[in-house]
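Schema walkthrough. Field components (list of strings):
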Amino acid sequence: MGTSVKICIIGAGSAQFSAGIVRDLCVNPGLAGSHVVLMDIDERRLEFVLQLAERLSAELQANVSFSKTTDRQKALKDADFVLNTAQVGGHQWSEDQRKLGEKHGYYRGTKLHNFPQMHLFLDVARDIERICPNAWLIQSANPVFEGCSLMHRETKLNILGLCHGHYGYLEIANVLGLEPQYVTAKTQGFNHWIWLTDFRYKGEDAYPLLDEWIQTKAEAYWAKADFEFWDNQMSRAAIHLYQMFGLMPIGDTPRTCENLGVGWWYHTDLTEKQRWYGSLGGFDSELGWQKYLDRLSDKVDDIERAVTDASLKVTDIFPPVQSKEQIVPIINSLVNNVEGIYQVNIPNRGGIVKGFPENLVVECQGVVNGSGIRGVSQEPLPAKLVAGTMNPRWSQAECMIEAMRLGDYHLLLSCLLMDQRTRSLTQAEGYLREWFADPRNEQLAKVFRIHP
Amino acid sequence: MGTSVKICIIGAGSAQFSAGIVRDLCVNPGLAGSHVVLMDIDERRLEFVLQLAERLSAELQANVSFSKTTDRQKALKDADFVLNTAQVGGHQWSEDQRKLGEKHGYYRGTKLHNFPQMHLFLDVARDIERICPNAWLIQSANPVFEGCSLMHRETKLNILGLCHGHYGYLEIANVLGLEPQYVTAKTQGFNHWIWLTDFRYKGEDAYPLLDEWIQTKAEAYWAKADFEFWDNQMSRAAIHLYQMFGLMPIGDTPRTCENLGVGWWYHTDLTEKQRWYGSLGGFDSELGWQKYLDRLSDKVDDIERAVTDASLKVTDIFPPVQSKEQIVPIINSLVNNVEGIYQVNIPNRGGIVKGFPENLVVECQGVVNGSGIRGVSQEPLPAKLVAGTMNPRWSQAECMIEAMRLGDYHLLLSCLLMDQRTRSLTQAEGYLREWFADPRNEQLAKVFRIHP
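Field assembly_structure (string):
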C-alpha cells in the first residue's frame, strides 16, 4: 500500500516537466493513491498536460489521480508538496527582456529577468504559508539560489531547491572514458555555482586522470568536428576555471559565470564564447540557445502527437522507469521514511557550507528521511576558491536577494552596476527605466515604488 | 615623570609624518625620556629628518632622544612601538605604476600598487615577530584595510591601523554651519570604507539637518566658484552614495569607491569626476593629485627652510600642541593606562562589525587603556548598506588579501578581472605581464612564481 499525498505543480503547463513528474509518480508504488493538482495560467496548455497525465497514468495502470485549475490558491488547498516550476511570461518575456538588455549594451541580456521570477516566488511562498503552511515547497524554477534564499528569509516554509547540474560529474567521467558505476563525486557551493570537492574512480582520487586528459587529450577533444552542439562541462572555459581556482566547476557552473562577476571574460561576444565553449558558443549563445529552444519545441511536438494520436503510446516518450529527477524519490523518502542521499539546496543552518551565512540557501548533499532533510557538511572549500569565486558570487546574490526583499530601487540598480558590461550610471538607469515601463513589470514597479 | 618607550618609525624619511609624531611626543609629558629610531632606506632624507627632529625637540626643550638607521632589523631591536609609514618606491613608483595602468586602459591606474606595499608590510611584520614580538605595530601606510588583515592572518602581532578619514564628519558639520564642540559622530566599517551610523548636534539626530541642506543648499555649494580644490566629504558623489545606501560615507570613503566595485561610475573619466567632485575632479583626478603633490612639495620646502635657516623656528610649522593625529595619545593610553576612546582598525574579534569574519581588520571605535584595545560594537549596519556596499568591498578585499597571502597569480589576476574597466582576459594578463617585468617588482614576481 502506498502513502497518498497531494502534490501541486505551479506552472504545470510545461509538458515535459509535468509529465516527467507524473511518470516518476506512476512508477513509484510508495506513493500510490496520490493526487496531482496541475496549476497554470495557460488554460490550453493546462488541458493538454492534464490529458497527457491521464494517458500516462492509464498506460502505466497507475493509481494516481489528477485535477487542473488556473486558481493558485485553490490549487494549494491541502497540498503536501508544492512544486514551483513557473516561468513568468514564458520564453517570450525572457526573450523580450534579453532584447531590451542588448539594446542597452548587454550582449545576451542581464540577470534582471530574475526579478519577475523572485517576485512570483514570494507570492507563491506567502500563499503556501497561509493556505498549506506544513507543505514542502520544492523549487525548480530559476533562480534557485537567490529565490530560495529570499523565500527562506521571508517565510517559515520548508524550502527545498532542486536542479540537475550536479550530474555534470558523469559527463566528466564519460569524456575521460570511466565506467560510471565506479565513479563517485561530491560537490558543494551554491546552485549553479558548485565545485567538485571529491572525485573518485574505483575509490581512488580521479583528479589525476582529469589532469592527464587535459595534458594529452583536451586539445583534440576541443578541436573535433562532432563536438556536442553545446558543451559546458568539458569546455575550455570549465578547464580554465579549474586551472584558475583548483576545483572543477560542475554542471551549470561553467556557463553561469556569465556576467556574474567571475567568468564574464568567457562571454564578451560570440567569438569569445566560441573560443571557450565550442562552435556554437555554448548553451547561452544566440546559436546554442536557439538549438535549445528548437529541441524543446520538437519535444513538445512529439508529446503532442503522442497525446492526440490514439495509435501512439506516451510511454514511448516517457518510458516507465524512474528518471534521474530527484523530486519523486525525495517525496517518497520524506513520507515513507526511506532514507536516501540527494543533492539538495537548503538553508545553510549550522554552516553546512562553511563561511557563509545561515540564512543563505546552499547546495550540498542531504540525508532525507521521515524526519526531514539534514545537510551533509564537508571540509571548508579551499581558501583560494572561496576568495576567487564563492565570495564574489555570494556578494552579488546578496545584492539581488536584498534588493527584492526590501523592494529597493538602489540595490536593484547596484545589481546592474556590478555587471561588468555597465559603462556608466546613465546606461544602467536608462535600461532600468525602460524595463520598468514594460506593462508586464507593472506589479514589480509598484514593489520598487517606481512611478513612470 | 614620563614612561620612556622606544618608538621605531619605518619610512621615517617622510618629514611631515615623522615631525608630526616627534612634535606630539615632545608635548606629551607622559612619554618623556622616550627614544625614537628613525629608519628609512633614503639616507639623505633620513639625515634631514633627524636634524628636524632634534631641532623640534630642542625648541620644545623636550626630553626625547633620536637615532637613525637604514638597517630595519637594527631599528626594531627592543622597540615597544613600530610605526609603519613606508611607501615602497615612493611617489615615483606609484606614478610609474599608474602610467602603466593607463597604458593598458585603466584611467588613473589600478589597485595593483597595493601589492608591493603588502609585500613590504609582511616583511616588516615578520621581522617584528622575530625581533620585538611584544611591540605594537601601528600601521599608517596604505592599504591599511587589506594590509592589516593580511598581517593579522600571517602573524601573532598586536596590530593597529590608524587613519584620519573618520574626522570627515567635522567637514560635514562645518559645511552645515554647526558648532563643532556640540557635534558627535560614530562611524564603522573598513578603513576608507566607513559610514556615519550616528550623527548628533547638541544630542539630537543631525541627519535631518543634512537632509535639509541637500534640499536647499547643496546645489549652490556645488556651484560656487571658490569650491575647495578637492572635495570628497560634501561632494555630489558623497551625497549620491548617501542617497543610494542610506548613510553618509565618511572621509576617504566617497573617493575610495574608485574602481573598487562600488562607485566606479563616479570615476570613468575626468569629466565624470568633475561632475561628481567639483572643478578639479577630486583628490584622485590628474588635476587634484597634482595639486596634492605640489602642496606636499611646498610643505617639504617650508620644513627644509626651517631646518636649515637658523633664524627660523620649526615650531612655526609644527606648533607645540598635540595634533589630531592619534598615534602618540594612543601610545600614552597604552603605556600609562590613560583610558581614551579612539578610531582604530583592529581585528574583528567577537564580531565588532557584525556579519564579517573575525580575521578581518575592521574600523571602529576602540577603548584604549593599559590592558590594550577593546573594539566597541555597534548595532549591525543596515541590511541595504551591507548588501550594496560592505559585502562587495569585503569580497574584493578578500581576493587581494588572499592573493598576497597565498602568492597566487590567479587570485591576483582575479583582482584585476573584478576591476570594472577590464574588458578582456587578454588585457588583464598583458598588463600583469608588463607590471611583473618591471625590475622593481623582481621580489614580488618570485613570490607569485612568475618567471619572465
